[in-house]
Design brief:
The protein is mainly alpha-helical. It has helices spanning 6-14, 20-84, 89-114, 121-128.
């Protein structure tokens, strides 16, 4: 048989339970420290995220400027090529302007079509009680 440890048994026998107020105070202190540490972590991560966002916006602006410069250089190269092929200077400029305008019109039409997704129709219908539309029914197919 193992002999009981005199230190361990005397500690258990002499241990008095802590008052509830001390336990509650210790628990509140631990909670306060936890909230403080989480707040510090949140503050540091927010600062890091804002720095990253600043760099992302700056680099996006730079990329946009570089893309615009590249586009202008491509137009200049196309103009030079058209003139070298014998097209008149004014005609080459008009052709390139027309192609750019066509690109603008196509882009605007696509944007207009995509903008309908920004309306949150189903969410508004649920929140505002708008009348439901007829559900989509696929056309009958012949077999």
């Amino acid at each position: 048989m193992a002999e009981p440890d005199p230190e361990h048994s005397s500690t258990e026998e002499n241990a008095t339970p802590l008052p509830l107020t001390e336990i509650a105070s210790a628990l509140l202190g631990a909670g306060r420290r936890f909230v403080q540490h989480v707040g510090e972590l949140l503050g540091l991560e927010t600062q890091r995220a804002l720095q990253a966002l600043t760099w992302m916006v700056a680099l996006a602006v730079l990329a946009g400027l570089l893309a615009a410069g590249t586009w202008l250089l491509l137009l200049a190269a196309a103009y030079t090529a058209l003139v070298d092929l014998g097209m008149g200077s004014a005609a080459a400029l008009l052709l390139l302007a027309a192609l750019n305008l066509l690109g603008v019109i196509i882009s605007a039409l696509i944007i207009r079509r995509l903008s309908s997704a920004l309306m949150f129709r189903a969410t508004r219908r649920v929140l505002l009680g708008e009348p439901k539309h007829e559900p989509f029914k696929p056309p009958h197919t012949r077999m």
